[in-house]
Write a structure and sequence with these properties.
The protein is α/β, with parallel strands linked by helices and 365 residues long. It contains 14 helices and eight strands. This is 1,4-beta-xylanase.
Amino acid sequence: MKQTIYLLVALLILGVACQSKKETKGEKELVSEKAATKWTQEQADAWGAENSWLRGCNFNPSTAINQLETWQAESFDSETIDRELGWAEGIGMNCMRVYLHHVAWQVDRDGFKNRMNNYLTIADSHGIKTIFVIFDDCWNPTYEAGKQPDPKPGVHNSGWVRDPGELFYSDPYLVDTLEVYVKDILTTFKDDNRIVLWDLYNEPGNSGYGNKSMRLLKKVFDWGWEVRPSQPMSAGVWNASLTDLNTFQLKNSDVITYHNYEGPAPHQVAIDSLKKYELPMVCTEYMARRNNSLFTNIMPILKKEHVGAINWGLVDGKSNTKYAWDEPIADGSEPPLWFHEIFRKDGTPYKQEEVDLIKSLTLGE
């Protein structure tokens, strides 16, 4: 979902680990204070044992171009959600990662939460748990409620929107709205066992924000700790160059989440590096065929290492993520190789051999 450097190198993680040993007294006190609000090792281990091997997709229904079209009342499509999650169930998926957006809540708070509950009921009927994503630094910087734009032919995620995006830097009062939003959502669903994980912030620092995202990243963890849901909270590391953000994310997440769209060798390096935290791990984004991040060569590694495996994309749809990030096809014709997605709109697999491999790894688990 991005065009940047992914978490590849053990050096970054080792550097974070070494840094923690050299903290000043004040820094140690800060870490100690945070440790009282995040999960204990025992809680994390119990969660990992209870949830076994999570495997699934980043999911928005094929009829939605972005998070607002997914969640607004006039476009919430329970029929498509039910059908497509049925296809996921059929290949042994047990977890979906689903993005929210504060504007859909702001327009209709109770309706938004009712639609979240509706989604969870549908997913649960298919044996699927949910990772909800709260904030996101990727793709279009502005947005508005109402009818969403049509897809641009052949352009990856042409209508996806950040949350809160540029408005966070231009509206000094938005932070108050976001605090109410986060606490409302977390409080409403804090004990819902259909939710397996809260992903508080997708790719903080993306879109050139860098350390500008630190303020909101810290706030969303603070708000989460005030509610302290029964589910773990995390924010996944994804870019080795964002050392300050990575340090904060890794120190303060209840369980470790990360993104990696590279091939087997660098992906294994990332896993080995993150093992040093001795926490359950979930790869919340992988699988980009052009990049040699495939079901055939990555999903078996994730299963062997007992790392959750959440690939990007389930069904080809309005998000256009079968097209690569940086390779638009102006006439909207079929790309020679799909970048993401497992199924065509009619439910037939893009590659039958991939579906067969997935089922061999998942069914009977």
